[in-house]
Amino acid sequence: DKEVRAIFLRLFAQLFQGYRSCLQLIRIHAEPVIHFHKAAFLGQRGLIENDFLTKVLNGMAFAGFVSERGPPFRTCDLFDELVAFEVERIKADEGNPPKMIKHVRELAEQLFKNENPNPHIAFQKVPRPTEGSHLRVHILPFPRINECRVQELLQEGLARSQGAAPATRGDKKCVVPAGPPVGMF
User: Fold this and answer.
1) Residue 140: inside a domain
2) Could you mention a single GO BP entry for this protein (predicted)?
């Protein structure tokens, strides 16, 4: 799963390399608007006649991409790093399938680490029931719940959570790297 996602990540990084150089910030409104200059992007790459890329750039998904990734100051991620710093590596890997596969596996590992920041928490395997276990009568009655003890546990948990730091990791906002100019491609 992660390797397929890594392949698509690489594809879109190659497809949209240099997109940041074609972003324009329009400040006539109270809220600044980010505009993508499609003609400049296609012209710099020499792809004005390319129907596929033109349709991709005119789609709603790309408009959402620009509005989400357009601001110059936001949280950076793996895609931003690929577009900004891995241009030469992706270009060099094109003629060498083993290097390309190695890079895809590295990206897949990074995607896995991003989604699973705590590697020590593993999935618990449930053991398969033993042969004939369904024939044994060992059903225990469900115990009565002690309402006072439940309230005590809830109060303890609330007290602990109010004093503890939030469990989510904070994403640090930074200036998004622009990457190399489009003319290099």
Assistant:
1) no
2) regulation of Rab protein signal transduction
